[in-house]
Amino acid sequence: MAKNRFSSGDGPSQRQLRVGELIRRTLSDVLLRGDVHDPDLNKISITVGEVRTSPDLKVATVYVAPLGGTLGGESAEAMLAALRRHSGELRHHVAKAMTLKYAPDLRFRMDETFDRLDETRRLFSDETVQRDIAARDDDEGDDD
């Protein structure tokens, strides 16, 4: 298989990034307007954090989270189940907004970015870490 001479292969291509962002915006708008008629989806404000597409743009993995915090495990699973149940309808909305040859298959996953940020903040606020940071700053200040 020929390799694209402009691609370094280290990450998603510009086209993948553009298509992913277009899908993210489209899904955000559809969910915000409540175009999908499901009480389970309409009672939750859903944030579409990121969309990653496969190199052939036929599969899009959509990372979602409830707006304003995390739901319990059962509620998060119910949200994902509702999105998966209506993936065909959501795919139709995405296809109308795009001019691709194929509408991508949508796969939904929980976005855990915010949970990782909370953990990182907790680690940085730890007394031991603060002491190490202060010690490092003092060492760099002595070099002047």
How would you sum up the major sheet? 3 strands, mixed
Note the beta-strand portion. Answer: 15-25%
Compressed to H and E, one letter per element, the order equals HHEEHHEHH
Spatial shape: flat
CATH-derived architecture of the largest domain: 2-Layer Sandwich
Strand order of the largest sheet: 1-2-3
Supply database-style keywords.
ribosomal small subunit binding; GMP Synthetase, Chain A, domain 3; 15% strand; 2 domains; flat; Ribosome-binding factor A; alpha+beta; 144 residues; KH_dom-like_a/b; RbfA; three-stranded mixed sheet
Describe this structure as you would to a colleague:
This protein is of the alpha+beta class and 144 residues long. It has 2 domains: 14-110, K homology (KH) domain (GMP Synthetase, Chain A, domain 3, 2-Layer Sandwich); 112-143, no CATH class. It is 53% helix and 15% strand. This is Ribosome-binding factor A. Keywords: Cytoplasm, Ribosome biogenesis. InterPro entries: KH_dom-like_a/b, RbfA, RbfA_dom_sf, Ribosome-bd_factorA_CS. Pfam families: RBFA.
Protein topology:
Layout: H1 14-33, H2 39-42, E1 46-53, E2 59-66, H3 73-85, H4 87-97, E3 105-110, H5 113-124, H6 127-142
Helix pairs in contact: 1-4
Subunit structure: Monomer. Binds 30S ribosomal subunits, but not 50S ribosomal subunits or 70S ribosomes.
Keywords: Cytoplasm, Ribosome biogenesis
GO molecular function, one term: ribosomal small subunit binding
Short description:
With 144 residues, the chain is α+β, with helices and mostly antiparallel strands.
